[in-house]
Design a protein that fits this description.
With 303 residues, the chain is of the alpha/beta class. The protein has helices spanning 6-20, 88-105, 122-125, 136-144, 206-215, 285-299; strands at residues 58-59, 68-79, 108-119, 152-157, 169-171, 186-189, 197-198, 201-202. The protein has two domains: 67-218 and 285-302, Collagenase (Catalytic Domain); 221-282, no CATH class. The longest helix is centred in the N-terminal third of the chain and has 18 residues, at 88-105. The chain is globular and about 50 Å long. The N and C termini lie far apart (37 Å). The structure holds 2-acetamido-2-deoxy-beta-D-glucopyranose (NAG) (3 copies) and zinc ion. One 2-acetamido-2-deoxy-beta-D-glucopyranose binds next to loops. Keywords: Disulfide bond, Hydrolase, Metal-binding, Metalloprotease, Protease, Signal, Zinc. GO terms for molecular function: metal ion binding; metallopeptidase activity.
């Protein structure tokens, strides 16, 4: 098993390291999707030409209009307390939030292809992105995952309410689909969905927006720190640490790699900041190019 999945195992180890060193950075990780670029798709430049390979998900929207890619979501509600059994109306609100951001940036829309509801302790035991055979996370995904690489499987779980625990979600990366097709997908805390209360604050749905960025091939803006290729995107300035929870939104004020060009892109969707600090449609051109390139290559989407 270790032979079969070396990158996955190293990701797991990295997660442990990130967790252990979180006291050094000023923010503990609230997203479990961390991996060095060296193990993933190389850098994509904003100007890069990408070649769509499949057309399966393109649907014409009326005559003369450009086809819009409609991305199906298979939603899995996994709960063991009543509150985690989120209503379809709440799921729709969350998907409308995704539509708002991703129609303005990638020109795509989402549709809820199906919703499953499972009463299980997985709601609390499947909280880490573990590919180990006996992990709850793996069992859950193998049991519930549906559709192919073009379907985004989303698992809404019930993460422990904050107070020290900041993990809100994680996503697999598109580069892993061919190796582990059933493990592809996003798990996140239902309390981050629009209108839900998390740690005393009403959520606006940004966690899934962020996780979807990973599912489309983005890394955190701070991956790799001040060295090397960072997040594999040319127009996101190098960033040493996630900005984290601060009072206010320090846009234009943080420069964690002072010897390199650009200040930290604090309000970028792939940074960690309080939910209201993300700017609307907060992806750069280079991030949009990377999402288009990777999701057409690995998920078969067209743009
Ligand atoms: C969970 O929600 C669904 C849809 O709202 C409902 O049909 C079902 O009875 C709920 N389950 C429980 C245990 O309350
Ligand atoms: C859920 O939707 C996906 C995407 O359309 C589809 O591939 C899959 O078969 C559906 N699953 C079920 C159980 O209906
Ligand atoms: C949760 O709320 C408390 C009190 O407002 C705050 O000190 C803490 O930083 C919050 N934790 C998270 C993860 O937001
Ligand atoms: Zn993340």
């Amino acid at each position: 098993m270790f032979r079969l999945f070396p990158p996955l195992v190293s990701m797991l180890l990295l997660l442990l390291v990130v967790a252990a060193s979180s006291g050094i950075a000023n923010a503990t990780p609230w997203c479990g999707s961390e991996r060095p670029l060296a193990q993933l798709h190389p850098r994509v430049d904003a100007s890069e030409h990408f070649t769509p390979r499949h057309h399966a998900h393109a649907r014409a929207r009326g005559q003369g209009e450009k086809p819009t890619t409609v991305v199906p979501i298979a939603w899995h509600v996994v709960y063991n307390k009543k509150a985690g059994n989120v209503s379809s109306a709440t799921i729709q609100k969350q998907v409308r939030k995704l539509d708002d951001v991703y129609s303005k940036t990638l020109g795509i829309k989402f549709e809820i292809a199906n919703i499953t509801r499972t009463r299980s302790d997985w709601a609390q035991t499947a909280l880490t992105l573990s590919y180990l055979k006996d992990s709850a996370s793996r069992q859950m995904r193998e049991a519930l995952h549906t559709g192919g690489p073009g379907t985004i499987n989303v698992y809404s779980l019930d993460f422990p309410d904050a107070r020290g625990i900041e993990l809100k979600g994680y996503s697999s990366f598109p580069e892993d689909i061919s190796r582990s097709p059933k493990l592809d997908g996003i798990s996140f805390d239902y309390k981050t969905m629009p209108g839900q209360i998390r740690n005393g604050t009403t959520s606006i749905g940004m966690t899934l927006v962020h996780e979807m960025g990973h599912a489309f091939g983005l890394q955190h803006t701070f991956v790799g720190g001040c060295d090397g290729e960072g997040d594999g995107v040319e127009d996101t300035p190098a960033q040493q640490f996630p900005t984290g929870y601060t009072s206010g939104c320090p846009v234009g004020q943080v420069d964690s790699c002072p010897n390199l060009p650009g200040k930290d892109d604090v309000s970028n969707i792939m940074n960690y900041v309080p939910q209201h600090c993300y700017r609307p449609y907060g992806f750069t051109k280079g991030q949009i190019a990377r999402m288009k390139t990777l999701s057409s290559e690995y998920r078969g989407f067209t743009f």
